[in-house]
Structures are given as C-alpha cells and as structure tokens.
Amino acid sequence: MSGCVWGAAPLLEALGRLWEVQAPLGSGSSASVYRVRCCGDPRAPPGAVKEFVPPPPRPGPARRPGARPPAADCAEYGFRKERAALEQLRGHRNIVTLYGVFTNHYSANGPSRCLLLELLDISVSELLLHSSNQGCSMWMIQHCARDVLEALAFLHHKGYVHADLKPRNILWSAEEECFKLIDFGLSFKEGNQDVKYIQTDGYRAPEAELQNCLAQAGLQSETECTSAVDLWSLGIVLLEMFSGMKLKHTVQSQEWKTNSSAIIDRIFASEGVVNSAIPAYHLRDLIKSMLHCDQGKRASAEKALCSPFFSIPFAPHIEDLVMLPTPVLRLLNVLSDASLQCEEEYEDILEDIREECQKYGPVVSLLIPKENPGKGQVFVEYANAGDSKAAQKMLTGKIFDAS
C-alpha cells in the first residue's frame, strides 16, 4: 500500500484506492494530519491521514553509541507505537478507528509512514471555544464523560495508558454520535513506560509532574505512572467543560496544591457559571473522585461509570444539536397542520423538500411524521454528516407550502 503524489497533485493511493487530499487538519512535532476523500465514490466516508514526517537530514559527525536516536528514528518509532496501540484497541466505538497503514514514497525528506484513520468532527477544545466562557450543557458534559470513561475502561483493561488526554484529543464522531479518543503517540503499557515526559501542561497528574521534574534533573522516580493519570486528565477536562474556563494556571497554583477541593467547590458555586442553577453535586463529586493527589485514591474508569451523575436524564440544548452534527437533519416548524391533513398537499410538499435537500448531498431517507411523536417535523438522513451540516445552515427557518 504505497504511492502518493502529495505535492504535484493532491492524491494518494492507500488500501487499493485513490484518495484526494482535501485540507490539512493539524500538525505536531513529528506528524501532520490531512482530511482525505476517496475518489470516484461520493458515498464513501472521508478519512484522515496521519503522516509521520522525517525531518531533513542534517550534516554532521556520526552518532555516538548511546546517544539519542535521530529524529527520523523517532518518527518511525512514533508510527510503530501508535499503530500497535490502535491495532490492539481496534473495535471500541469510543476510540478512533484505524483503517490501515501505508508508506508515502514521495515525501520531500524521504519515505514517510502513514496511518489512514476515521475522520472525526469537532473537538472538545473547539466546543470550549464555542461555549464563550459559559460552560457546556450538562447533557454534553454527561455524554462526553460517559464516552471517554467507556474508552478508558476498555484501554485500561487492555493494559494501556493513554497518557495525553486533553480537549484536543477528544473528538465528536458525527456518524456514530459519540465522543472518541485520538492520538496514542504517548500511550504505553502499564508497567512498561517507555516515555518519561507524558501528558500536557494543565492536564498532567501530580505523579507525572514529579516524574518529569526528576527526569529533567537526571533522577529516577520511585513512583510509576499508572492508568490513574488518565482519570486526572479527564477530571480537569470535565471541570473546564463545566466552568467554560481554561484551568492551566489554576491547577499549577499553590492554592490548588494546598486545597483543590475548595477551588472545585468555588467553581461549582460561582454565579458566573450557567450550570450553577442545576443541581450538579453528582458531577462535582465525580470530578473530585478523579482529582485526588494520591493516585491510589483516585477512582478507576469502571468505578467512575457507576457515579449517580450518569443516572440523571439530561436533554440536549438546541445549541448542542447545532455544534454536534449528525447525518440526520431535523427541521422544526416546517409544515402546518393543514398540510399534514391534505394527502395531495402533503405529497407535493414532501417532493419539494426532497428536491431542496438534495441540493446539499445525496438523501438516504426522508420522513415527515403525521402524528406525534415528531408530528410536522422533517427528518432528513444524508450519506454523511458534512452534507447534513451544510443543509442545516441553509434550511433552518425555511417554511414549505404547496402554493
């Protein structure tokens, strides 16, 4: 599986198919991610290619025995590490799907290794930006917390630690209507930690912070990082989703280290938090259970899933439905009762709606219930969530009639 013409033409060959490179999605120190779509099959779901890019070779003396491996070796190691993790964790609905691997022989700096992945939608980081410092809805927080905990329970059971859980690495799957974990570049098997510098500032557990500091000083930590570091990170993510605030400086403050519980209480009691009117004690207690400084007292993912917080039925806000697209578009207040009662008028409007909706992509199915539940609403299923999202922008507020 190889062959790519990244530069001259935005096409690549992978898994026996030709893919168009549509846009860059992001880049890090050793890898770049691109949105791709399968050529010749408009119904095929788009994908994402993560390319581990070797840096340009630098002239210089030969590497000394025992010296740090060159960056090219690091790129190959990162590829092998993430591939192994994704292959062993394949099949869980809350973990990004690996479709396959291939080599890009046309990279400017020599052959590069690539992962072809499921394309996901909006990240929790982007959702926090949209929340305008008011916090996410309780429905969204609950949905995200449950999905991520399900993923963590699975990968911890497999012996893995994610080790870089943060808002940018939790993405919404519009096709499956759930949150998924991505980026396993720092993951490791518990008891076999091969990377000392784990997690990201602001989401780093105390034991990982200590380990990092000791490693910088050339010392060995007596405490190993375990799956508990992932629960700490998730606790911070949920606290940020509730408050709508980035908490990096808060969790690095001396006040937090002295009494984090009091700061959490203060956040939940704040008048500036939209959710403060909702009895959120269960969420507060769930977050506290993840943020014990002593990793031995931190809740496991399986135990956290038993929290009473998950027994509360929250309904999504209209903003949630707009921000978290799905392949199914729901239009409200589109038809009058009179249109529903007249069969001929109903059929004409149905055809008009189908014709209008098909302007934005292939329509898989269309339903307009004549009775409750859903009476008068229009449900349009598109082949993919991108088409649904485009249609929603243009059709929301539009009224159809037979005149």
TrEMBL record:
Keywords: ATP-binding, Kinase, Nucleotide-binding, Nucleus, RNA-binding, Serine/threonine-protein kinase, Transferase. It comes from the Eukaryota. The keyword Flavoprotein does not apply. It is found in: Nucleus. Residues 47-72 are annotated as: Disordered. It catalyses: L-threonyl-[protein] + ATP = O-phospho-L-threonyl-[protein] + ADP + H(+); L-seryl-[protein] + ATP = O-phospho-L-seryl-[protein] + ADP + H(+). InterPro entries: Kinase-like_dom_sf (IPR011009), Nucleotide-bd_a/b_plait_sf (IPR012677), Prot_kinase_dom (IPR000719), RBD_domain_sf (IPR035979), RRM_dom (IPR000504), UHMK1 (IPR034372), UHMK1_RRM (IPR034371). One of its GO terms (cellular component) is nucleus. Gene3D superfamilies: 3.30.70.330, Phosphorylase Kinase, domain 1, Transferase(Phosphotransferase) domain 1. Its main location: nucleus. One of its GO terms (biological process) is regulation of protein export from nucleus. GO terms for molecular function: ATP binding; protein serine/threonine kinase activity; ribonucleoprotein complex binding; RNA binding. Residues 19-310 form the Protein kinase domain. Its EC number is 2.7.11.1. It holds the Pfam family RRM_1. It is an enzyme of class 2 (transferase). Residues 53-62 have a biased composition (Pro residues). PANTHER family: SERINE/THREONINE-PROTEIN KINASE KIST, SERINE_THREONINE-PROTEIN KINASE KIST. Upon serum stimulation, phosphorylates CDKN1B/p27Kip1, thus controlling CDKN1B subcellular location and cell cycle progression in G1 phase. May be involved in trafficking and/or processing of RNA. This is Serine/threonine-protein kinase Kist. The gene is UHMK1.
